[in-house]
Amino acid sequence: MTSPNTSIEDVPLNNFHRLLTVRSGGGSFVDGYVLSIIGIAMLQVTAALNLTEFWQGMIAASALMGVFFGGFIGGWLTDRLGRKTVYFIGPSLFILCSLAQFWVESAAALFAFRFIIGLAVGIEYPVATSLLVEFLPKKQRGPRLAALTILWFAGAAFAYVVGNAILNSVGDDAWRYALASAAVIGLVLLLLRIGTPESARWLLSKGREREAEGVIQRVYGPRYSLRDLPEQPDEKKMTFSDLLHSGYGKRLFFVSVFWSCSIIPVFAVYAFAPKVLQALNLKGEWASYGSMAITLLFVVGCVLATRLINTIGRRSMLIHSFLWSGLSLLMLAVFSNGNEMLVLFLFGAYAVFIGGAQVLQLVYPNELFPTEVRAFAVGIGTSLSRVGAAVGTYLVPVSLQTLGIGNTMYVAAVVTFIGLMAAWAMAPETRSLNLRDAAALSS
């Protein structure tokens, strides 16, 4: 038997945890790939399907629209049907809709398939992160969840490599092969997830104690049991509405605000980096290489945050991330007419410092809510943040034309400082807590 003070959240990382990280992280990789591949293929798509400006915008935004609905649907399904069942929905939709894009002949059809792919992405966030966090030891929770953000950028980068290789080697129909290529990655992910067990915490929340016990012994060994799980079923099952009225509404507000404020400027900058840099007087190779450097520094920032998340804690990381990235944007506004090296330095500083807030997007929502509604809370955060991302991305060209680059950077800084205020006022510290204590309202 285990010692009285031991729980499954204190066990060392084992091969099951590593494999589950790959299984869930693979979803983030595919998300980055499918959301980025359309940008590479768009030039050929526009010519092949004779897209009007309206349809260009609609197809570009279709996946984000799908993510909005997918977050709500995926969170609800994950808490209702279980993590294991919903775990296979996203990859299945990736495969089917990616392949279907190969034969599209109209803008409306492509929009529909991209929208469903967005639904799949929205479903992935709550199910993959909930399943992962409910098995991980508490010391590995932060770093492993944070690593999913890095894998998203890796998937986006891989899309650029594969997409450009296809476009340069296939011909006029290359865009069809580029969009369909996501089906291969989706298939690998689907096969990789076969054999994944249901979450013992979810089974326990549904009163299925015998099945939960079996999962625990399968994953951790025969000497572990439900007694070693620091989360026991409540006599009264609370609905999502009950939880909001009992105090979790404040946490949901915090998650939605900080997630939106961390993602709005990033999506805008990431989508329009060359255009923004050009407005900041970086021309030609400066703009081209600057865009690549900034993309790389986003990854560097996420990697550094992943390494430091258990050292400096969640609350301190979020506050410092918003503070220093906001100051970087503020300085970009003040020195919008500065020389090339200063502009690139400040842009790079923003990309590195915002990494802390980026990786916490998947950490905080999974730690701050109980098992019954964890996935739904993550889904809501996903959905609401994408509304802000879509609006921010849409408004960047308008803002550059009407307000100018300096005022656009001021607006981005204000959004970031709103995130700072939310973090200062509401961010709890959950670094050393087990999931039960982290989700308790007294923490």
From TrEMBL:
Gene3D superfamilies recorded: MFS general substrate transporter like domains (1.20.1250.20)
Superkingdom as given in the UniProt entry: Bacteria
GO CC, any one term: membrane
Localization: Membrane
The residues covered by the Major facilitator superfamily (MFS) profile domain are: 20-431
- Identify the keywords attached in UniProt to this record, alphabetized: Membrane, Transmembrane, Transmembrane helix, Transport
Among InterPro entries, the record links this protein to: MFS_dom, MFS_sugar_transport-like, MFS_trans_sf, Sugar_transporter_CS
Q: Name one GO molecular function term.
A: transmembrane transporter activity
Name the protein family: Belongs to the major facilitator superfamily. Sugar transporter (TC 2.A.1.1) family.
Q: What is this protein called?
A: Permeases of the major facilitator superfamily
Native organism is Pseudomonas batumici
Q: Please spell out the taxonomic lineage of the organism that makes this protein.
A: Bacteria, Pseudomonadati, Pseudomonadota, Gammaproteobacteria, Pseudomonadales
